[in-house]
Design a protein that fits this description.
It is built from six helices and 40 strands. By secondary structure, the protein is α/β, with parallel strands linked by helices. It has a domain at about 75-380 and about 395-410: Pectate Lyase C-like, CATH 2.160.20.10.
Amino acid sequence: MKQKLQMLSAGILCLLSLSASSTTPMTQQFVDSTVQSLQRRLDDASEGDTVFVQPGKYEGNLLISKRIALVGVGKPVIRGRGIGSVITVSADRSTLMGLVIEHSGTMLIQEDAGILVKSSFNTLERNELRDVLFGIYLLGSHNNTISQNTVVGRNQLELGERGSGIHLWNSHRNTFSGNTISDTRDGFYVQNANGTLIEDNEVCRVRYGLHYMYADSNVFLRNSFHDNVAGAAVMYSHGIIVRKNIFAHNRGFSSFGILFQDCTGMVVDSNIIVDNVVGMFFEGTRRNVFRHNVIAQNDAALEMFQNSTENIFTENNFIDNLNPLFLIGKRTETRWNLGEKGNYWSTYDGYDLDDDGVGDVPFKIQNVFHYLEGQYPNIRLYLYSPASQALAAASSAFPIIEISQEKDVFPLMRPIEIEGMDELRDNFDRRGISKDVGHAHATLAFALPIVCMLTGGIAFWRVIRRRQL
């Protein structure tokens, strides 16, 4: 009875989607595991037919060369030959739904994938892909809808030997919604793909959750990129909207929540960026707006080359980051407020005599230790040591060396309330990735023995002296 209901609901969905695009008469065919060749049945089908696949295991590889809907009932398994792609879609307006797809080939240069799409206006929905090199590969393929699929890569391979979970090349105006990707090389690899919508997806245990190059006017909405080597790398692109996403627990060598390189005209709004080595990294990135984000408990909230200019940060919450700004160079042209709206900094110790919610004293984003760390990264070893704290305290009383002049002229006294943040936190908790992201401030153990203070101070002085020589 359950299988009949699944067949009926799947059939209704396919008929609705296909009838809107053609007036050709459609038929329904049912295939079970006793059928010798599923490919033969696909070849015999007419344009617009719906082929229902009963539970069982079917041998691939399959080619869909005409407009049909291939619908699984009870999760039938399509097993590839271990060479090439398991299913190749070369016909427009086709549908793949409810299938388990496994055992693709092993050649990266041949785009061996669970599903290789070379056509447009297709629907791929509620499929499970496992033991595949690439998950879903779109090659010159436009206006497709890819939703609620699960891709699990080959975690026995080294990261560089795997393919991406979802890979786009020269493919425009595609929509990806509600997919889950793990154990691939990159979650989404997007290159030369404009007008893409990526929403409500989850990516974990990969190299880059999102690897994004030469693609403009795309939207990333309510995705979760967590427990990766790096959350997202957005490069050489214009007009990107990044809104209500989670970038969390991305840690490894040279890791970050989000990297921006040579990007312009972006709006990065209402995201959670928490517990990364670097929250956001900038190189050659100009004229973008960052607002209403929570950047919390990262080793460095921001790492920025001085060639990243004319960016605006307004009404963001910077909470409990070990270093608010790791600046590579002398200065930037970053604006740390828009009008009289600055940002909230948990380390701001100024005052608000007129009680308007804005600090009366500008917030110097870097102290002398933060500045030196940007010039000499090795001294991070002494972060929060008594020597570094003493140096920072001394520099606030009188100038020691000339440091950058990055400052928030209108620092906020309280964290701002961000629209939709409760929903985003619930999503954060529901996915089981919240871990410990409370507001515990880092503290310094002043009860260290005097010998530790002297040792740390001498070692710190030697590092700086050696760099000067």
